[in-house]
Amino acid sequence: MPFNKNIIESNVSLLLEGETGTGKSFLAKKIHENSNLLGPFIHVNLSSFSLSLIESELFGHSKGAFTGAVTDKIGALREANRGTLFLDEIDSLPIEVQTKLLLFLDSGLVRPVGAMKEYESQVRLICASGQNLKKLVEQGKMRKDFFFRISSGFQYSLAPLRKEKEKIAQVCMSFAQDNNIQVESKLIHYYQNCEWPGNIRQLIGHLRKKTISTKGRVLYFDEIDQSLGHDIAVSNEILGGVKTLKEVQTQYCLRVFHECGEKVSEGARILGITPATLRSYLRQIN
Predict the structure, then answer these.
(1) For residues 45 and 128, what is the distance between their CA atoms, to the nearest angstrom?
(2) Taking the domains of the chain in order of start, what are their residue ranges?
(3) SS in 3 state form for 185-254?
(4) What is the per-residue pLDDT across 243-270, written as a single tens digit (0 to 9) for each?
(5) What would be the CATH architecture of the domain defined by 5-158?
(6) Residues 6+ away with beta carbon under 8 Å from 121
(7) Which of 35, 62, 127, 257 can bridge 90 by disulfide, Cβ–Cβ 3.0-4.6 Å?
(8) What is the mean pLDDT of residues 28-50?
């Protein structure tokens, strides 16, 4: 956790910055879970709503406020009362709604679309963006006072996996613990030599795919890892001098084959391939 206990337990606003998939939403939820806030954690991805719906999503609306408003809607700002509102992709928030949200942050009062009444709501705001917000201010796409307001608390930048390779092992071990499986250590080393443009989200998605396709409880290198589609330079120390992806695959097949007592059916089950495919790899070695 990058923030100390005092910051986590306060209601100060936070701004999380980082590329797509670096774990901004995961961190925001962990901060909420470790805080003293009694209300819920409400996650709103602003990029998933059209301009006409964003205001209603945040502030709510009264029945009949516009075509399609057949019932009252409470809105995320009131749903998150006494809790945390996480606004993902804050760079997608239109200027017009920035103004109204800025008024809420100053007053703590919410007025739903089409309503005359205002409602009080106490919310801790955590914003996240993969864009350079200062540049958006310079381009006139974000209000300067709004930027200053959401960044007035604490800011934290989450580095991509390519800059913090040690995180790959942490993600693999955390995933293994959560799913009651094991990830073979050399596979983790292999992943540390891969490129992950989608960062943590891509790595976890890949691990989920492997878990579903693997019948055993241990994840080894298999055909699914070829789908990474990257030109990987694997070191001699990690893979014993193996240079090509085909050689990596063949050597892993041989290793699993020996570790399961040279039983083709069991080795194939662990690798997630057919016995015929495993025999084919073994013939290549011989």
Answers:
(1) 9
(2) 5-158, 162-285
(3) HHHHHHHCCCCCCCHHHHHHHHHHHHHHHCCCCEECCCHHHHHHCCCCCCCHHHHCCCCCHHHHHHHHHH
(4) 555 666 777 777 777 766 677 777 777 6
(5) 3-Layer(aba) Sandwich (3.40)
(6) 77, 78, 80, 81, 104, 108, 109, 110
(7) 127
(8) 91
